[in-house]
Write a structure and sequence with these properties.
Helix content is 51%, strand content 0%. It is mainly alpha-helical and 90 residues long. It is flat, with a radius of gyration of 17 Å.
Amino acid sequence: MPGVKTGEAQGFPIYYTTYRDLYAPASTPREVIDTLAKALKKVMESEDHRKKMEGELGLALEYQGPAEMGKAWDEMEKTMQELIPLARKD
């Protein structure tokens, strides 16, 4: 968009991505979480899924397990802390 400064040009070096996650209640037993994570990884690494998502839809895939996704969300929240108040201007 001509004339519109990027977030980085305004002092916010933020590069956003979209996460497609699978969630479960906090009380879900660890064995269930591990089973779901293993199944999800298997699907995401399958040739048919990659062909559809990356080839046909142009979506980049990167599997992240429960610990990695928790860390990614913590980092995203930390990064967004400065921007959230700006979005709430009345």
